[in-house]
């Protein structure tokens, strides 16, 4: 029995033609445009007219594959709490998710413009893939070009393929048919209907400037005598295609044609056949998209140009659908033999990872993983080398992956494996740790020494080096699962990547600035929210750091002083060598003022004693603050005052113990512009690597509620 599919945002049925060509059967179509629906009825004898936003998904017949070339919209996160799937609400992509959730088809094929991955700074695509994963689908994607599927059009589109069966769609298996010329696709009869340009209306460029563009296959040969671009162009550059607006460019039929755009309702697509310049005919436009010769065209030219520009390459769909059919019917995913398939499988596993998975690790292992992911973007070589080693170990259990060069005894080529599989995968998935070519190009990694604990490479900081080597040691000496390590690292990296896509709303951009009481209420709620992630003790640290950025600029006491960058909040002061959470230094780099922040911890004599030990060696230190979200009682203040007085007399440093919120309130009254503080807080929330996505979303929610 043939597999069934539904055709959403159906247009004139480009998806349908391709799917049926691959042996699938259409059981439902949806299209809102009236003219497109009329053409659909004419060609398929079915009326697809439907507003998908009002469609009851339960009314759709059961099907195997959902197909959609959907419009791209940005997503708003303000006030959302239910994760990325909920964030898509109010967009047409949400309706795709809604139908997938209700009907649970085996697979889907989605198509969109090439730059979907960079739309809204990558956030849109991250939201989409996260939403699809949360619905249980393993998602693979690739930018495909129509010119590789038997039509003479340079039309790049991203195609996403997902399935619920844990299989991996391999785009490398798609059958391609490359085209280099328009000539075989041009009309051969009834040339009397061609719309020629008079020779006075265009200029052909000198043959020495004509060449086939390597990537696109286009051959720019001339231009209509219309106004050229002026911004950013040099005089006498008419031989360059970019100087002319697209509707004025003329291309040789010995190359291929540029993308047929939906916005071009006049059909200004000009080709040169070696003798004359003319417009493409409508039949040629439909042929350039893979539509059959007997496809019925109704309506005026403007409508038809718009319809074909909005459609999809039929042959491309057919090739993708054929491979999808094979994948769904296949019982062998070939995962053990194909690193690309294995990577996709592990990535999907990481996307839907249950929180209980961390129970497989001890505290030291988790600390090492946290260290690697926290330094993913700054220690890309280490990150990539670790993932490469773990993946190779999964696929070759007999190999000691610490021997990362072929000339080492029992070694293998880690660099080659990385260059061919791992780095391209990280780049495709937009990992923060993705390198341009290979992690082994980093000098600290490319050493003639195994990745054993005595590895001499100068990896900094030392905590990152130790984490990297200890993980490999754990895998090789203790036989700990390399797959478990790789999946959890992927999981944490995905969360880190998503966190970087969240745009934090700034309350300063509202009509009215917040007063100090509102700011304190906002911060208190943000600090104290019951997050599902690890402790949010970093939040008050960022708040005070943001205030000190203001104080350094405004208060004369801090003139010439230096505010140290924030270091990792997850390292103890003893292990990291930090004097406190926030450090201000004088112009000789001596400690001048230190702030130590406690989250949910009552200040006791041990904490004060430890602080004094850090104070004593620093004779230039003027103030040392210990601030806690747990307000000290009157008895506590009296008890600690003796320490403070003694320290002031014998050392000259003032020890200040206080409640965190009270001190925030005082400092906000001290600075000139609280809007500047909020700007800093939003900036630092967005940039700090330890801030999680949930903390950003809750901040936006709290602002929306205000």
CATH topology of the largest domain: Trna Endonuclease, Chain: A, domain 1
Mean pLDDT, nearest integer? 88
Tell me the helix content. Answer: 25-40%
Q: The biggest beta sheet, please?
A: 6 strands, mixed
- Return residue spans where pLDDT drops below 50 for at least 5 consecutive residues: 75-85, 569-577
Any guess at the CATH architecture of the largest domain? 3-Layer(aba) Sandwich
Highest CATH level, the class of the largest domain: Alpha Beta
Write down the overall geometry: elongated
Number of domains: 4
Strand order of the largest sheet: 2-1-3-4-7-5
Number of strands: 18
Taking the alpha carbons of the first and last residues, their distance comes to 57 Å
Rg value: 31 Å
Tell me the strand percentage band. 5-15%
Q: Work out the oligomeric state of the chains in this entry.
A: single chain
Structural class: alpha/beta
- If helices are DSSP runs of H or I spanning 4 or more residues, what is the number of helices? 22
What does this structure look like?
The two termini are 57 Å apart. The longest helix has 20 residues, at 482-501. This protein has a six-stranded mixed sheet with strand order 2-1-3-4-7-5. Strands 8-9-10-12-13 form a five-stranded mixed sheet, with no helix packed on it. The protein has a five-stranded mixed sheet with strand order 14-15-16-17-18, with helices on both faces. The protein is α/β, with parallel strands linked by helices and 706 residues long. It folds into four domains: 4-172 and 314-329, Vaccinia Virus protein VP39 (Rossmann fold); 188-280, DNA Methylase, Chain A, domain 2, CATH 3.90.120; 353-501, no CATH class; 507-705, Trna Endonuclease, Chain: A, domain 1, CATH 3.40.1350. The protein has helices at residues 14-21, 34-44, 84-87, 92-103, 123-134, 282-287, 301-309, 314-329, 339-351, 363-374, 380-395, 414-428, 462-477, 482-501, 516-528, 538-554, 573-576, 605-615, 634-650, 660-670, 674-687, 693-705; strands at 4-8, 25-30, 65-69, 107-113, 138-145, 153-154, 156-163, 202-204, 220-224, 249-252, 257-258, 270-272, 277-279, 562-563, 582-585, 591-598, 623-628, 654-659. The radius of gyration is 31 Å and the shape is elongated. 38% of the residues lie in helices and 12% in strands.
């Amino acid at each position: 029995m043939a597999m069934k599919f539904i055709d959403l945002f159906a247009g004139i049925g480009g998806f349908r033609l391709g799917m049926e060509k691959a042996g699938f059967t259409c059981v439902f179509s949806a299209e809102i445009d009236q003219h497109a629906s009329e053409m659909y009825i004419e060609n398929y004898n079915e009326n697809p007219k439907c507003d998908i936003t009002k469609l009851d998904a339960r009314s759709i017949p059961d099907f195997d594959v959902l197909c959609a070339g959907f419009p791209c919209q940005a997503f708003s996160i303000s006030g959302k709490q239910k994760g990325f799937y909920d964030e898509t609400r109010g967009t047409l992509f949400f309706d795709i998710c809604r139908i997938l959730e209700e009907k649970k088809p085996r697979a889907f094929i989605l198509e969109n413009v090439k730059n979907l991955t960079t739309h809204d700074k990558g956030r849109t695509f991250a939201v989409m893939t996260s939403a699809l994963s949360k619905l249980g689908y393993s998602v693979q994607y690739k930018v495909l070009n129509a010119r590789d599927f038997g039509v003479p059009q340079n039309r790049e589109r991203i195609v996403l393929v997902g399935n619920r069966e844990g299989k991996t769609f391999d785009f490398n298996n798609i059958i391609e048919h490359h085209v280099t010329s328009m000539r075989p696709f041009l009309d051969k009869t009834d040339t009397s209907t061609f719309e020629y340009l008079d020779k006075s209306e265009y200029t052909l460029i000198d043959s020495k400037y004509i060449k086939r563009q390597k990537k696109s296959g286009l051959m720019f040969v001339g231009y209509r005598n219309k106004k050229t671009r002026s911004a950013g162009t040099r005089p006498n550059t008419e031989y360059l295609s970019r100087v002319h607006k697209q509707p004025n460019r003329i291309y040789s039929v010995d190359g291929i044609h540029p993308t047929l755009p939906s916005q071009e309702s006049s059909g200004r697509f000009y080709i040169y056949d070696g003798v004359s310049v003319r417009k493409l005919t409508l039949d040629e436009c439909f042929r350039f998209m893979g539509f059959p010769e007997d496809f019925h065209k109704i309506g005026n030219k403007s409508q038809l140009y718009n319809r074909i520009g909005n459609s999809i390459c039929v042959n491309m769909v057919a090739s993708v659908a054929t491979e999808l059919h094979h994948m769904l019917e296949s019982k062998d995913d070939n995962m053990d033999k194909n690193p690309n398939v294995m990577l996709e499988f592990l990535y999907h596993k990481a996307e839907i990872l249950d929180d209980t998975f961390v129970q497989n690790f001890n505290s030291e292992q988790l600390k090492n993983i946290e260290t690697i992911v926290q330094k993913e973007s700054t220690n890309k070589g280490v990150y990539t080398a670790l993932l490469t080693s773990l993946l190779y170990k999964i696929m070759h259990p007999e190999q000691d992956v610490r021997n990362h060069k072929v000339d080492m005894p029992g070694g293998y080529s880690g660099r080659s494996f990385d260059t061919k599989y791992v780095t391209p995968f990280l780049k495709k998935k937009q990992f923060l740790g993705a390198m341009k070519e290979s992690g082994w190009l980093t000098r600290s990694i490319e050493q003639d020494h195994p990745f054993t604990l005595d590895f001499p490479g100068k990896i900094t900081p030392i905590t990152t080096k130790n984490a990297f080597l200890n993980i490999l040691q754990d895998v090789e000496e203790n036989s700990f699962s390399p797959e478990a390590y790789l999946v959890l690292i992927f999981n944490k990296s995905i969360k880190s990547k998503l966190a970087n896509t969240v745009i934090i709303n700034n309350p300063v951009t509202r009509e009215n600035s917040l007063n100090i009481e509102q700011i304190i209420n906002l911060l208190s709620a943000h600090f104290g929210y019951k997050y599902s992630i690890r402790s949010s003790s970093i939040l008050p640290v960022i708040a005070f750091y943001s205030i000190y950025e203001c104080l350094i600029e405004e208060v004369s006491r801090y003139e010439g002083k230096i505010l140290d960058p924030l270091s990792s909040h997850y390292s103890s002061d003893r292990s990291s060598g930090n004097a406190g959470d926030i450090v201000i230094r004088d112009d000789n780099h001596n400690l001048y003022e230190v702030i130590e922040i406690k989250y949910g911890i009552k200040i006791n004599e041990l904490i004060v004693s430890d602080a004094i030990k850090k104070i004593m060696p620093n004779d230039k230190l003027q103030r040392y603050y210990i601030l806690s979200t747990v307000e000290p009682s009157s008895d506590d203040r009296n008890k600690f005052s003796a320490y403070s007085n003694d320290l002031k007399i014998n050392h000259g440093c003032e020890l200040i113990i206080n409640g965190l919120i009270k001190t925030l309130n005082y400092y906000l009254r001290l600075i000139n512009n609280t809007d500047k503080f909020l700007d800093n807080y939003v900036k630092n929330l967005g940039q700090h690597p330890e801030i999680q996505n949930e903390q950003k979303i809750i901040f936006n929610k709290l602002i929306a509620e205000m």
